[in-house]
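Section 5.1 Outputs to date
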Amino acid sequence: MTQPLIDPKAHKQLFLDDHALERTYAIQRTLHQPDRKGAVLRRDRSMGQVRVAAWSTPIWNPEKDLWEWWYNGHYGETDAYFNHYATSVDGVHWDKPALGLYEWQGSKDNNIALDPSGKMGELDSQRGLGLYHILRDDRDPDAGRRYKGLFGARDRHLGVSPDGFDWTMLDTPPIPSQDTSKFFYDPYTEQFVATVKQPTRWGRSVWVSTSKSFDRFTKPRLVLHSDETDWENCRRRVRKIVEDPAYFTPPIVDDEDYIAEVYLMPVMPYEGVYVGFPNLFNPFGAIPAPHMNFTRINQPELAVSRNLYDWERVADRSLFLPVHPWDGSAYDTSQISICGAPIARGGEIWIYYNGYRIPGYKHLHEIYDRNRELFRLNIDPAVFEDIGAMNLATLRLDGFVSLDAAEVGKVVTKPFEWRGERLYVNVDAKWGELRAEILGADSNEPAEPAGPTIGPGLPAAFGPDNFPVQPGFDRGAAVPITGDHIRAEVRWDNAERPSFERPVRLRFTMRQARLYSFWLE
């Protein structure tokens, strides 16, 4: 046969795109939003911080047997940031160890990790962001390069360190960027990847720059930008915030028709694909144009790629982490920014994100709407002293997208080789069931006729399939899977472990069930 084969032995087959799917019947693709756990790391009031944020995710240190997290404390309307350090044994409860490295407010009893007045701060004298991204590289034989970082408020300068505190800046060109970016190591291509922000005619957009050695990065290449659909979504999302009294409206709503922009995009290499989290920037007004950062919402969607450069938006661009209505306590009522690549832990995916409560500083509300929105929501002025925190949300393993059958639905896969491995599925069938059939890969028989039902509401056959069923692996012989499982083995009555000389397909028949992935092992 000439059709390319999928490889469920190498990676789980997910459904963010149609790569593993031949066809479906009565199936809906659903994007799942993660379960928000709330803030896990807040500002240090004693140091004068008004918010904290991180542009990298926590790092596991096997030598210390704990999680490390470099983050930034924001000190008031001066836009000054200091780099700080926290540790955790479980990724939820965080300690801020006294490092004794740098003096602040007359004392070194603090967790400041890099000197903002020293050489790191000199990379950008206006904001002094210093360390922007950091990752631990246990593959590098040089212990002095164990940690790799990108520095600066705009262009990303390269630095290496043995411990994340004592840095050596590399004498190489920086990666061109605007004020946001993301950084990760790609295990598929064995290279470092930065997704940076650059302007285009579609507004701020996502570009990719890579390096095999972390000594020199490639020229950034444009990979994702907004379009007319995003602009229409922007209009709809802005109206939702403005018209729904449960939400906090920014201080300026000028009814201009602004374009949407892709502000940044963290990327997670996961099960053979790249899962992107494009942050859609939706402006409400300008002060003056084009300065819209203080009067906007930022919300992540999902995208998927198989080569880092060609991206497909997922589930009709549904929001993955939308802002919440104002409740007086949550930190994600104005802007959400995922810190970096989410972390797969056990049976879950952990998503750390920055949440911002207030759209704009206090003086902007006084100037542009005379505090009407602050009065309407009965907002405590003390909220402006605690405007942002680092938060955690969790998602079921493989749980970005599912294929759902509300009543009875059918999924036919692309062909693959099967040489005696076991078949597993990640499925939620607590109110229904899933059965699987093994089909020949080639369409060499007439379509199955409609027939009677077997089991509770399961049709014996439906739809224009003409792939022959392998003897002993039909729907009648399938052991139904019920319940909610991230790992359930698929079986057939009185059948040996499947093994075939020629490629085969699967046909899943589901009743009131959600299928997240399937694989062989």
